[in-house]
Amino acid sequence: MRLNLKLTVFFLFFSFMLFGYVYSPETGRNSGNSIKPGALATAAGKAVKIGSLPSEINESSGLETGNKPGTYLTHNDAGNAAELFRIDSKGKLLATLPVSGAENIDWEDITKDNQGNIYIGDTGNNNNKRTHLKIYKLRQGNPAQVSIIAFEYADRKAGTADKSNYEFDCEALFWHRSKLYLVTKDRGAGITAKLYELPDQSGTHEARYISRYDVNAPVTAADISPDGKTLLLLSKGALHFFPANNSPNFFKSGMKTYDLGKVGQTEGAVFTDNKTVMITNENGDLYQYKL
User: Which pTM was predicted?
Assistant: First the structure.
């Protein structure tokens, strides 16, 4: 009994010292101190700048791999033209792809499924006033043929526009096993990320609440690794990783955070392979981060 108690105390102390938190699967939250930026940076190094985006891309807000190796898709943030940009791994503009019938109210992230369909999240909600949101679904080779996935958050209550309820601004979107997942950022305290699930088919839906996690930073992008084993969340200057073996509750197994160094306001992120992440910031810089 005494030995078991000692082992338990040692495990808790080791977990706290190594990761900076003790995770609670029941609440989806962490206790103790959160991971400080840079706490695990020595394990994987810093982000390396590898290119710059052209002037046409004035505020890259999402990033996804293209249909040819070494190519990527990105888009501008709110109020810009409804178009995608195909770039290479150095940021060179290869093509501009207008998205027919779409409007860029506040495009925040982009993802794709295993059939090559592209999903663009018009999900930004800075003032917490948007209740009817959209995701545009299209084929990369035919951006003129677009379908719409319209949705509302199932747990959003009418009239909750005050800052204490600023939990419905979403800048992070990813696809996994025929479902779309939204990760909102808390514009009130700037701490909690909420996870929602949505069908990947056109129509009008409710985004189903799954869980929440104290990321301790506003989340600006998300992606899942090609092998489906790792979920990443991006925040300003940091990457947060979760094991993806608890779908749909990806937050269940806890989080590891890696500091990116001095990279500015990072907005877009995508796995290029299971160990490499490409990142854009709002200043038009393109970074690579190797795990």
Answer: 0.84
